[in-house]
Design a protein that fits this description.
It contains 14 helices and twelve strands. Helix 4 links the parallel strand 2 and strand 3. The chain folds into two domains: 243 residues, Aspartate Aminotransferase, domain 2 (3-Layer(aba) Sandwich), CATH 3.40.640.10; 131 residues, Alpha-Beta Complex (Aspartate Aminotransferase, domain 1), CATH 3.90.1150. The strands form two sheets. Strands 1-7-6-5-4-2-3 form a seven-stranded mixed beta sheet, with helices on both faces. Strands 8-9-12-11-10 form a five-stranded mixed beta sheet. The protein is 38% helix and 15% strand.
Length: 384
């Protein structure tokens, strides 16, 4: 049994099989220390110097996530934004980057404002079209291609392998925001990605009680060393308690995601035939534009996120969200509780999000209860 290669779900559930060597506890301790003692000869043989660089509490979470994603190293950050922006801050002013038009809005806004003022040349494309990515990259000038798949909040899908080939032929790296897919459904490194990013606040933690981010590298190289140095220098380190909670959450990642996928697919199919819904956006529906690509690179499900476009436009969508009882009107996704949000209102002016769209994060409640609650809200909003 010890020689058998365990499934990823088993590695996650048992946190790589770790047992505390002193107490034999199956749950790791939280190391609160901010600094570490030098040896008599002034060396640090423990490998620890100062907690802004790392902390023993990070080790298990980083090792587990790296194993789940199939990369040699992982880094956890104080937020998804700090993890994502580190990839761009590791570049130099004047470098060209390609990013999606449809992506996490806070990062898109940061790229369009701070990153450009700092000196990066940012080009936004329809990343679900690989020909658009190919047309945008500039051989010798493009340093990073960033994609998000499925992309928030319309869940369009990008072909990771094709994007990796385009990026690499241009001399660029490919980074993939895989927050929604999680390593349960997609392992981007296996498709050619160089960096995988997660807003670990979402599915990796899964309990809506921390803010965290993570990067996993395909190689432990100079680029990875630069990211690690940036984390320490910028101070975007995760707190010790939050790191412990992240590891706690990852231990149930596989059953939580599997449940959410089943429920989301059932809801997508039912709402696709709903008289008050004009369109359902979900990669698992055969008629969805990215379904074929999603079927190739997502194993075991199509995710727990979907969006519905409400007949009657923006007012009807907002009125529907106002009338739910079980769904919670809140920003975020990937927790055990189901959330609903009128996304265009949150993103504000300039958003590419349709104003009739409601974003749904499916949790672990009964899918029948979730359908009934949103169904009554749609009908009451329509009759109001």
């Amino acid at each position: 049994m010890n020689d058998k290669k365990l499934a990823a779900a088993s590695l996650a559930a048992q946190a790589m099989g770790w047992v505390d060597p002193v107490t034999r506890a199956v749950v790791p301790p939280i190391h609160m220390a901010s600094t570490y003692v030098r040896d008599e000869d002034n060396a640090y043989r423990s490998g620890r110097i100062y907690a802004r660089a790392d902390n023993p509490t990070f080790d298990q979470a980083e090792a587990t996530l790296a194993a789940l994603e199939g990369g040699p190293k992982a880094l956890i950050f104080s937020s998804g934004m700090s993890a994502a922006t580190a990839c761009f801050l590791a570049l130099a002013p004047g470098d060209h980057v390609v990013a999606p038009k449809i992506m996490y809005w806070a990062l898109r806004n940061w790229l369009a404002t701070f990153a450009t003022s700092w000196g990066l040349k940012v080009e936004f494309v329809d990343a679900d079209r690989t020909d658009a990515i190919a047309a945008a990259v500039r051989p010798g000038a493009t340093r990073l291609v960033w994609i998000e798949t499925p992309a928030n909040p319309t869940w369009c899908v990008t072909d990771i392998a094709a994007a990796a080939d385009i990026a690499h032929r241009a001399g660029a790296l490919l980074a993939v925001d895989s927050t929604v897919a999680t390593p349960v459904l997609t392992r981007p490194i296996e498709h050619g990605a160089d960096i995988v990013m997660h807003s670990a606040t979402k599915y990796l933690n899964g309990h809506s009680d921390i803010i965290a981010g993570a990067l996993v590298g395909a190689r432990d190289d100079d680029w990875w060393a630069r990211l690690r140095t940036l984390r320490a220098q910028l101070g975007t380190i995760l707190g010790q308690t939050e790191a412990w909670l992240l590891m706690r959450g990852m231990r149930t990642l596989y059953p939580r995601v599997a449940w959410a996928c089943r429920s989301a697919e059932a809801l997508a199919e039912r709402f696709a035939a709903h008289p008050m819904v004009s369109e359902v956006l979900y990669p698992g529906l055969p008629g969805f534009a990215g379904h074929a690509v999603a079927s190739r690179q997502m194993a075991g499900g199509f995710g727990g996120m979907l969006s519905v476009r409400v007949k009657g436009g923006e007012r009807a969508a907002i009125a529907t969200a106002a009338r739910v009882a079980l769904w919670k009107r809140a920003t975020s996704l990937g927790g055990v509780e189901s959330l609903i949000e009128h996304r265009a209102s949150i993103e504000g002016p300039g958003t590419p999000c349709p104003t009739d769209l409601l974003r749904l994060s499916v949790g672990v409640e009964d899918s029948g209860d979730l359908f009934d609650d949103l169904d009554q809200a749609l009908r009451r909003a329509h009759n109001a």
